[in-house]
Amino acid sequence: MTAQNEPAEKRPDTDAVAQPADATPAPESAAPGDPGQGGNTPQDPIAELRAQLQAAQARADEHYDLLLRTRADAENVRRRAQEDVSKAHKFGIESFAESLVPVKDSLEAALAQQDQTAEALRTGVEATLKQLSAAFERNRLMEIAPAVGAKFDPHQHQAISSVPSEHPANTVVQTLQKGYLIADRVLRPALVTVSAGQG
């Protein structure tokens, strides 16, 4: 037989790398975020965004509920205030009217009496005037009656004329008609004559 028929000589495999028989294969490198590895695991960004959105929505709902309650409270206060104003317009004079009713009763009783003397009539009128003055005082309706020589006050007095007088200028010479105050507000100014000083 020729050399061509002889089996080809076995050549060592140059591509194989000889390894010791007891060598163990190297572990594969763990991919980042592998739950099998230790350390902090980064969260899913979508899940984190959803959690933030839910928290923000909860806060928004809480604030909206607070807004609705505040608006309802404000509406209740406005309605109560409107009712109070309406009642004040209707019944603001109730106390004053209640004080005046006895005065009217006294006047009607005086007129109902027959053949009364002038002295008795005067006594009755004086008693009725006291009732009226007490009613004014209870309801803070005060007189403006400046004395002679008092300084003229344009906020409470109305000068009818200015006359020469021995009193200093711009002082009251005579009160022609009393004025009245309700609390601190002028209901009617007093009509007065004012001194122009010595002529």
TrEMBL record:
Keyword annotations: Chaperone, Cytoplasm, Stress response
Record keyword Nuclease present: no
Protein location: Cytoplasm
Superkingdom of the organism of origin: Bacteria
Database matches in Gene3D superfamilies: 3.90.20.20, Head domain of nucleotide exchange factor GrpE
Cellular compartments per GO CC: cytosol
InterPro entries according to UniProt: GrpE, GrpE_CC, GrpE_head
One matching Pfam family: GrpE
CDD domains named among the record's database cross-references: GrpE
Ranges for region Disordered: 1-48
Gene Ontology terms describing biological process: protein folding
A Gene Ontology molecular function term of the record: protein homodimerization activity
HAMAP family: GrpE (MF_01151)
UniProt subunit comment: Homodimer.
Function: Participates actively in the response to hyperosmotic and heat shock by preventing the aggregation of stress-denatured proteins, in association with DnaK and GrpE. It is the nucleotide exchange factor for DnaK and may function as a thermosensor. Unfolded proteins bind initially to DnaJ; upon interaction with the DnaJ-bound protein, DnaK hydrolyzes its bound ATP, resulting in the formation of a stable complex. GrpE releases ADP from DnaK; ATP binding to DnaK triggers the release of the substrate protein, thus completing the reaction cycle.
Similarity comment: family membership: Belongs to the GrpE family.
Protein name: Protein GrpE
Species of origin: Bordetella flabilis
Source taxonomy: Bacteria, Pseudomonadati, Pseudomonadota, Betaproteobacteria, Burkholderiales
